[in-house]
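Re: the request from the purification team.
They wanted to know what the chain is likely to look like in 3D before they choose a buffer screen. I agreed to run a prediction and write the result into the notebook, where they can find it.
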Amino acid sequence: MSERLVGIDVGGTKMLAVAIDRSQPSEVLEMHLVPTPSTSDGVLSALRELSIRCGVDQRLGIGLAGLVEGGEVLRAAPNLQSMIDIPVRAAIEDALGVTVRIDNDATCALVAEMSTGVARGVDDVVLVALGTGIGGGIASGGEIRRGVHGFAGEPGHMCLDPNGPMCVCGRRGCWERYASGAGLVWLSQQRSLRVDGTGNAITAEELAERARSGETVALEVWAEFSEWLARGLANLADVLDPELIVIGGGLVAVSDLYLDRTRELVVSEVLGGRSRGRIRIEPAHSGPSAGAIGAALLN
């Protein structure tokens, strides 16, 4: 008998909801994408509305961009500050009368990729979610690692340059200031590429279009983005020695602009280089939907 599962990925700028069938979780039955509201009441309202639109039955999974304590509440979230200490699980269970499970959004994406995606059958894997910021999920020996507080998997806040640009977390030079969606925009601004053709602030989507049309400055931005991405991935590989690194998040949709170059650069950046064998770096099989699919699969 089929069971309809609904998952919602709440990121810094977008909320993605999907409905899947437990028996065929890789096939999305329904999908809805909306901007992330700026207030906690707005986010809770959007969670309720998206759940209903996806036909939630008995179970709902929610992935939040930040440090989730005990599957209950968000304790720190540089890119989702309005939701800190908000009792999301209780609020949605009371409103909809369904069982709710909550986890970090990138960890949810790892759940999806280990269940039905590119990491299926891989015991040692790191997922790096490139969105507004950078999230992460870690598996070792076939088990997801959460750390003593349950907060493991926040590589976006590794400091690559203590004199670098200010991060939303309050420190300087975090990896996500260079190799996330927001970081990509910052890199473009350093080259005076600040607005699109209509005068609006430049976006990652606009930079992708410009690069594909051959615009020199946009290509330079993506090349530098690849360098910063590779530097952080090499640091993770030095510490965790994974068999596979999965790239997820919204920017996986434009991975053709940076992934090949990043793969080559990681070889030169990681300790041991070519002597350790090539580390597989692959896009998430579920693409930007991995977080929402993984949320739906939370037990």
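For the purification team: The chain has two domains: 4-110+290-296, 121-283.
Please add any questions underneath this entry.
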